[in-house]
């Protein structure tokens, strides 16, 4: 394909409809705001309807009525997920993107020790985390696929390629840097590694339907999920990073938007790390850049 034809793919997600779970808070909320700025329409889904409705109010106060729609969903419930997704399709007429940001985090009881797998509390917490973070993501994918495939078919602009689809429908899952390293919180680490596997498998299966599936892997970001127990850690890590700042929810939202733009058509089954480069630091510690500067 010539460069000029690639450029025809466009760079904007304007006019598309995004379903965002966990959009009442944190990374999902920031993503909902950014997609509204891009002139997409947004279904703001969360188990906490009050928070989802507040996000819709915030968006509508900037972009006007009708841009966003709040719905209560529990991603643990297959029937509820399907009914809510079908409601969104009815409300907006189509679904182009699914962003799976509903998730639960880490707690002391979720760390594995020698006897964890015999421990009823550990197993209960482990199943809770897996049900929301992993199976909840899979339930959302299953419910959205017919709508995403329909939208891809309607958007189809072959651009003189040999493939029948231009895969304008996208799914972005929320992994974590704990999917490429580990946090030490066993259930969370397992769930985020599973998201990577789910993303790669779904990318392979859904590509022929015109749907690209990727995931993002944020490092620790200040949100309600993390601030209770990792605040000091995030601050310390930021001071050691190459660019000396923490990541913000908006940083993650920007990466998600990038993956949904038509021009990201060749990204499929990928993991995009948003950690300010901290994974590259040797043994978890940065070089002493200031000392290097003195010697140069
Ligand atoms: N904040 C971070 O540092 C960070 C880093 C890497 C990955 N993540 C991942 O990003 C995602 C979002 O995290 P966040 O920091 O925005 O957390 P958050 O707690 O601010 O938001 C999560 C949202 O998910 C909703 N939710 C929880 N259970 C649900 C259910 N059963 N059905 C529907 N909605 C439900 C919550 O009500 C909440 O609004 C999670 O998957 C998390 O693991 C976060």
From TrEMBL:
PANTHER family named in the record: SHORT-CHAIN DEHYDROGENASES/REDUCTASES FAMILY MEMBER
GO MF annotation: an example: oxidoreductase activity, acting on the CH-OH group of donors, NAD or NADP as acceptor
Membrane-spanning segments: none
A Pfam short name: adh_short_C2
Family per record: Belongs to the short-chain dehydrogenases/reductases (SDR) family.
Signal peptide: none
Protein name per Swiss-Prot or TrEMBL: NAD(P)-binding protein
